[in-house]
Specification:
Strand order of the largest sheet: 8-7-2-1-10-11
Order of helices and strands: HHHEHHHHEHHEHEEHEHEEHEHEHHE
Helix content: 40-55%
Low-confidence stretches: 16-30, 37-99
Number of strands: 11
Structural class: alpha/beta
């Protein structure tokens, strides 16, 4: 236990020894402007103005930040959550801007850990700003990001996947700028799955690029340390309509109790779409779900290729490391709407963004709720163009299950 404690002590010490804070430049400017500054040989980013918009009233902010999806009465916390696919009559739904035609707007989606593959980034050779981003990121984190993305080996990419996916997703923005002319100038909302939320915040001007990279590196270290401290895993479940998931997870926890494990964890970690959830927790509980799940309405299950119970209380110590690191980060208000996977709601300002970042390591990913908040519209209203940026194709596959019309208007920007 002393050794385990020391791992987190070292991580916390790194924060205060300027791993996050060193060379920090207080940039609050659009992501593409930062790259332009690098391209022109600038060594420091400059601050950008906040515009002339008047401050939003507290009442208006409260209404706009309210839940944009239907919720059942929670009998077992998040496990009782259920969505209404097109809850268009929800009085708390934030209205679209009056002058905005959905066909003239763009939504960006960013992937998370697990989307990586050896060879990603090979489509970006002809995009100078993308190549410069990889070079800049490598100088910040101290290892060759592009080489690991393209050549691996797979074990090294898996170990460094959070930073690799973040940089590749941001590089995909530059590819989209070349191949989808005008789309990025019409972005009205962004969201990211787990780690992808960092990319969304960088694009929206919430988090400076350098700080985002250092925070991601530290988060990856802290999550790996937490996973070593207590063995856990993740399991994808495909569910029948009448599945009894809350009861199944309670039973799994009960069956996993032992003198060595008095408080087992087994809970939903990712809400993907109505018939699919990812659960995470202690190995004993997950193995019981694999054996007995069919009797509770589980049609099939598959292990997620990660070594920890991410987005559960088993990541609490990693979350504490991230929270401490954020004390040294510049977190500003978003320039475009960011819908957070922590709660499926729009982020209303810098303080709200900081709270989401403090929680996004151990909190469940409410991706289904996030997609409803982004795409719920009356049936006769067109959907905006969606660009799924970065490696992997899971974002569009999930979108198709939640909102087929939004999927029809979406494109994967492959890297």
């Amino acid at each position: 236990m002393d050794m385990r404690r020391s791992v987190f002590s070292v991580l916390l010490a790194q924060i205060y020894q300027s791993k996050i804070h060193s060379r920090v430049i207080g940039i609050m400017m659009p992501f593409h402007c930062a790259l332009r500054a690098v391209r022109s040989g600038a060594r420091r980013y400059v601050s950008a103005g906040r515009g002339t918009n008047q401050p939003e009233s507290p009442l208006r902010r409260l209404v706009r930040d309210a839940s944009a999806f239907g919720e059942t009465n929670a009998r077992d916390g998040d496990l009782a959550w259920a969505t209404q696919p097109y809850a268009v009559s929800d009085p708390l739904r934030p209205p679209a801007p009056e002058a905005a035609d959905p066909r003239d707007s763009t939504i960006l989606l960013f992937p998370g850990q697990g989307s990586q593959y050896v060879g990603m980034g090979k489509c970006l050779d002809t995009i100078p700003t993308a190549m410069e981003l990889y070079e800049l990121a490598s100088s910040i984190v101290g290892w060759d990001v592009l080489r690991v993305c393209r050549e691996g080996p797979e074990e090294e990419l898996a170990r460094r996947c959070q930073t690799a996916v973040l940089v590749t997703s941001l590089a995909a923005i530059e590819l989209a700028r070349e191949t989808r002319r005008g789309a990025l100038e019409r972005v009205r909302a962004v969201a990211g799955f787990s780690l992808g939320e960092v990319a969304a915040f960088v694009f929206a001007g919430v988090l400076p690029l350098e700080q985002a990279l250092r925070l991601t590196e530290l988060r990856a270290e802290a999550m790996a340390a937490a996973a070593r401290e207590r063995a856990g895993g993740m399991l994808t479940l495909w569910l029948a309509p009448d599945a009894r998931l809350p009861a199944l997870l309670r039973s799994a926890r009960d069956r996993a109790v032992s003198p060595a494990l008095p408080d087992p964890v087994c809970q939903v970690a990712n809400f993907l779409y109505p018939g699919c959830k990812v659960i995470a927790g202690d190995e004993q509980a997950l193995r019981w779900v694999e054996r007995e799940g069919r009797a509770w309405g589980v049609r099939r299950s598959a292990r997620v290729g990660v070594a920890g119970a991410f987005h559960t209380p088993l990541m609490a110590r990693a979350e504490a490391v991230v929270r401490s690191a954020l004390e040294h980060c510049t977190v500003g208000a978003p320039r475009v709407t960011v819908v957070s996977g922590v709660d499926g709601k729009a982020v209303s300002g810098g303080a709200a963004a900081r709270r989401r970042l403090e929680r996004f390591t151990a909190a469940p990913v409410r991706w289904e709720q996030t997609l409803h908040a982004l795409y719920a519209r009356p049936p006769d209203t067109p959907q905006p163009l969606t660009l799924a940026l970065g490696p992997g194709r899971a974002l569009r596959a999930t979108l198709k299950q939640v909102n087929a019309r939004a999927w029809d208007a979406s494109v994967h920007v492959d890297v």
